[in-house]
């Protein structure tokens, strides 16, 4: 039997945290391992409790969710962990610019605070598996306003093979492994191997970061 998904709650509203904790703990294969009220404590709790998924409020006193996400997913902290940590930012506004910035810092997507318990549970499972929790069109809309002049394509991109570039473009459009396999007449296991190679060569953590990288460098 697999271990439950460990969830950390970071939000300055006690009542909201308590309600979310009840929802998460009621899900099979999930448990709340911590609940804190600001970003400073959130960063510390990630180091101490080793959660798999962090539900991060975007607007908090002392340290907001954007900066807390940046610190939690900084290269120095990521490299010292035995298991990955995924962050879902929570906001009251759809297509929030702060949520977009958090995604650039490594968050796996965002949810509106008024989402349903079923969607919340699905989102936790989705990011735990390495995927985004918002539709590709929404992610593209968020990212499109985040960049002025596009950054030059880094030399490391040239290390991708022709097939890997084809898969990169498909991932950047939000296609799943199954959809990419069908479009490229490949097996899903082959696509998964290509995605792993792309992440390794470009130094990216997950598929969400592929989308950000593609928009940042005008490769979409």
TrEMBL record:
Residues 6-128 form the Response regulatory domain. CDD domains: LuxR_C_like, REC_NarL-like. Residues 153-218 form the HTH luxR-type domain. It comes from Nocardioides dubius. This is Response regulator transcription factor. Keywords: DNA-binding, Phosphoprotein, Transcription, Transcription regulation. The modification 4-aspartylphosphate is found at residue 57. The keyword DNA-binding applies.
């Amino acid at each position: 039997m697999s271990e439950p998904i460990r969830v950390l709650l970071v939000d300055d509203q006690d009542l909201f945290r308590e309600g979310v904790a009840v929802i998460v703990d009621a899900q099979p294969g999930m448990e709340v391992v911590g609940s804190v009220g600001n970003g400073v404590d959130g960063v510390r709790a990630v180091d101490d409790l080793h959660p798999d998924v962090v539900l991060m409020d975007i607007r908090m006193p002392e340290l907001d969710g954007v900066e807390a996400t940046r610190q939690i997913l900084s290269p120095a902290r990521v490299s010292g962990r035995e298991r990955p940590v995924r962050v879902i930012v929570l906001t009251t506004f759809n297509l929030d610019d702060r949520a977009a910035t958090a995604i650039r810092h490594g968050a796996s997507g965002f949810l509106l605070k008024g989402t349903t318990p079923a969607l919340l549970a699905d989102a936790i499972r989705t990011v735990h598996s390495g995927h985004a929790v918002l539709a590709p069109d929404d992610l593209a809309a968020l990212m499109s306003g985040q960049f002025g002049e596009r950054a030059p394509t880094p030399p490391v991109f040239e290390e991708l093979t022709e097939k890997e570039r084809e898969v990169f473009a498909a991932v950047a459009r939000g296609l799943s492994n199954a959809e990419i396999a069908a479009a490229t007449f490949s097996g899903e296991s082959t696509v998964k191997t290509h995605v792993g190679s792309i992440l390794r060569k470009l130094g990216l953590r997950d598929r969400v970061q592929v989308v950000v990288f593609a928009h940042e460098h005008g490769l979409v």
